[in-house]
Amino acid sequence: MGKRYHCDYCDRSFKDNSEIRKKHLSSLQHAKNYAEHYRQFKDPEEILREESTKIPCKKTTSENGCPFGNSCRFSHYTAPMMWELERIVWLKQRKESKKFSADIPNPLEIITEFFQNPLSSTIEETTDRPIWNIPPHLKTYSNLPPSLWPITPASVTDSNFTKWG
C-alpha cells in the first residue's frame, strides 16, 4: 500500500500524489475549512474592522438561521456583540498603551528592601497583637486545654508539650 496524505483541515486522507494533492488544496471545500480554522485565531481588531464594514444578515433572525454560515458575505454579529467586541479592542489597546515597567514593580527592589531590614518595626508591631480573638464563652472555662489557649510569645518559647495531653 502506498503513502497516504492526510489533510488536517478537511479531516480526509487520500493517496499521496502531487496531482491529487494540488487538486485537493485548490478545492473550494479545502479553502473554506482552511479559512474557518484560522478564523478562530484572528485578532479582535481585525474582526471588528471586517464586521463593521458588512451589512447585518437578515437570515440569521429566521428559525433556520443563515444557510451560508461563516462564509456569508453579511455580518452575523448583533449590536450587543459588536459593542462587546469594541470594548475588548478598547481594553486591549489601553493595555498596550500603558508602559509595562510602570505597572509592575521591580522584583529586585522588593527583595533588597526586604532583606535590608527583615525585622522592621511594622513586623514587630503586628506580632505584639493577638492573631485571633478568643470567643467570649471560652474565657469562662477554667480547665481550657492548652491547645485552645491564645498564642503568646511566652507560649511559643515554652516547649513543654507534655501538659498538652
TrEMBL record:
Compartments (UniProt record): Nucleus
Main location: nucleus
Domain C3H1-type: 51-79
Gene Ontology cellular-component terms listed: U12-type spliceosomal complex
Zinc finger (C3H1-type): 51-79
GO-annotated molecular function: nucleic acid binding; zinc ion binding
Keyword set, alphabetical order: Metal-binding, Nucleus, Zinc, Zinc-finger
Matching InterPro entries: Matrin/U1-C_Znf_C2H2 (IPR000690), Matrin/U1-like-C_Znf_C2H2 (IPR003604), Znf-CCCH_4 (IPR041367), Znf_C2H2_sf (IPR036236), Znf_CCCH (IPR000571)
UniProt superkingdom: Eukaryota
Coiled-coil annotated residue ranges, if any: none
Domain Matrin-type: from-to ranges: 5-36
The protein, known as: ZMAT5 protein
